[in-house]
Design brief:
By secondary structure, the chain is α/β, with parallel strands linked by helices. The chain has helices at about 15-30, 35-40, 50-55, 60-80, 90-100, 110-120, 145-155, 165-175, 205-210; strands spanning about 5, 15, 85, 100-105, 130, 160-165, 180-185, 200. It is about 40% helix and about 15% strand. One of its GO terms (molecular function) is hydrolase activity.
């Protein structure tokens, strides 16, 4: 029986992927590395540990730390104030609570970014908890963040669903034994989201069709939307 929903935040509940890409582009450029924005977007959804090494396989631990800190500082300075929740994000969290589900947020973001996301969502009172980069050793696509969220929610993998927007959410959830419902708002093609049990345009679409969706404990739905 479904007992908990684990929501990714960036690109799922909050419109932020583009800003993360721009901050990464500037941080990498400052270190002498230039990439196409699409190349950077293809890695969004991972924390700095995996993001940097996907692009720079020979990066040292110090390189990863310095680039991650630079990206975070640039994101906070130039983009954090521009974050907005996707339409229906807060209402979907409320609907999940009304359905009797534990609601957890599970993100690769650091604490400063997570605090800003919670502020943007106005969701602290709507969720049962959250996990971020500070809670785990490795970011998505490693399963650590979702495993920590499961532990905090007190549920088994088969009793939870992940809602996310990137292939890294799906991969991390699969490693943790959790099914994923994907949204296209992170701007990944359906082919990249193929491991999800259902794909929606955005969280507003999930909310609109909630009663027939996999998020409704009473529906048992697993269709593709």
């Amino acid at each position: 029986m479904l007992k908990a929903i684990l929501f990714d935040i960036d690109g799922t509940l909050v419109d932020s992927n583009e800003y993360h890409v721009l901050a990464w582009a500037e941080a990498l450029h400052g270190a002498g590395h230039d990439f196409r924005l699409q190349t950077l977007h293809d890695q969004v959804g991972q924390g700095g540990d995996n993001f940097v090494r996907a692009l720079l396989p020979d990066a040292t631990d110090r390189d990863v730390e310095e680039l991650s800190q630079a990206q975070s500082a640039l994101f906070q300075r130039h983009y954090a104030h521009r974050l907005q929740p996707f339409a229906g994000a807060k209402a979907l969290l409320e609907r999940c609570r009304e359905a009797g589900l534990e609601v957890m947020l599970a993100t690769s973001a650091n604490r400063e970014t997570l605090d800003r996301q919670l502020e943007v969502l106005d969701a602290r009172h709507l969720v049962d908890g959250w996990t971020g980069a500070a809670d785990v050793g490795h970011s998505k696509p490693c399963p650590d963040i979702f495993e920590a969220a499961l532990a905090k929610a007190g549920v088994e993998p088969q009793e939870a669903l992940v809602v996310g927007d990137t292939p890294f959410d799906i991969a991390a959830a699969k490693k943790a034994g959790i099914r994923t419902v994907a949204v296209r708002s992170g701007l990944f093609p359906d082919a990249a989201l193929g491991g999800a049990i259902a794909i929606y345009d955005n969280v507003a679409a999930i909310l609109e069709g909630f009663d027939q969706s996999p998020l409704n404990p009473a529906s048992g739905a697993a269709g593709r939307h």
